[in-house]
Amino acid sequence: MLTTTDPIDQRFGLARRVTLPGPLKLDSGALLAPVEIAYETYGTLAPDAGNALLVCHALTGDQHLASAHPRTGKPGWWQRMVGPGRPIDTDRFFVVCANVLGSCMGTSGPASTDPATGRPYAMDFPVITIRDMVRAQALLLDHLGVARLAAVVGGSMGGMQALSWAATYPDRVPAAVVIASTARHTAQNIAFHEVGRQAVMADPNWRGGDYYDGDPPAAGLAVARMAAHITYLSEAGLTEKFGRRLQSRERKSFGFDADFQVESYLRHQGLAFTDRFDANSYLYITRAMDYFDLAEEHGGLLANAFRGTGTRFCLVSFDTDWLYPTAESRSIVQALNAAGAPASFVELSSPYGHDAFLLDSPDLDRVIAGFLGAVR
């Protein structure tokens, strides 16, 4: 039986959690049931349900798009972008953001209870893919009565989901905005993720993923976050913010203290992350990103993913993003052109690297507002 928790009033939005009976068939062949999905909505759904816009979050993001995070108290991760009169205008759109499958902020994942055992799934949770995340979102939209979106918008891993939406449900997505993303991971992307996974699994507290009754592998997860966070920044940005500045003028002996300011910054990022994220979810989601290869899903040719589509695409990259450099976006645009799909593309200048799409960027605001302004 389908159940929904009472909505919680938040600034500009409603936080909800729904239990869908399923089963959800995954790419691995496994069936997941029930399927819990945590999500937030902003704005009002039109009588014909034609104004729904889905925002897909990145690896360590969540459904708290434009309202305060209940655990950290920090503003929503894209609060500057979503709201009345903002580029994603809630006076016009009914905006939905769902926590992805496999995550730890209310949607089914490794920390969820396995109905067969009454204990957390841990590493018995089935393997998931980006396309599985999209299928779970489609179930949620079915529950909300949304047969067709006005648009789907996503950055980084959210961009992967936006691409997968357009390829998997082309009739439900007339417009897609893909920001700082890629159609597949390179060997270097996979290598960085593997370093993080190994850091988690090397932590004695990981215990094969069965740590929910004890201390979590916080030290390993913090190191994983530190390594990943470096890839989200640019050398110019790090140099401008920290350079080689020491914490103090006194040179310390080698040890566990952070001598350089950049060391202290990374350690803070790592420790803060462990307060809000589950280590097993990190393993599952990074693996899903590594598996993502939209061309492979369509006979080895990326253009095949978009042939015959009626979706209009807007792709955005940043010139200092070395995690998903502009060449990755260009390859998607070339495939869209080969498939005859309408696409616009822009490379924006920013000193902030991959994370630029999350930070103040008037140029990005103008691009998104302009593209969505043409959505009917």
From TrEMBL:
GO terms for molecular function: homoserine O-acetyltransferase activity. Its EC number is 2.3.1.31. The active site is at 156 (nucleophile), 321, 354. It catalyses: L-homoserine + acetyl-CoA = O-acetyl-L-homoserine + CoA. One of its GO terms (cellular component) is cytoplasm. SUPFAM superfamilies: alpha/beta-Hydrolases (SSF53474). Signal peptide: none annotated. Belongs to the AB hydrolase superfamily. MetX family. Homodimer. This is Homoserine O-acetyltransferase. The lineage of its organism: Bacteria, Pseudomonadati, Pseudomonadota, Alphaproteobacteria, Sphingomonadales.
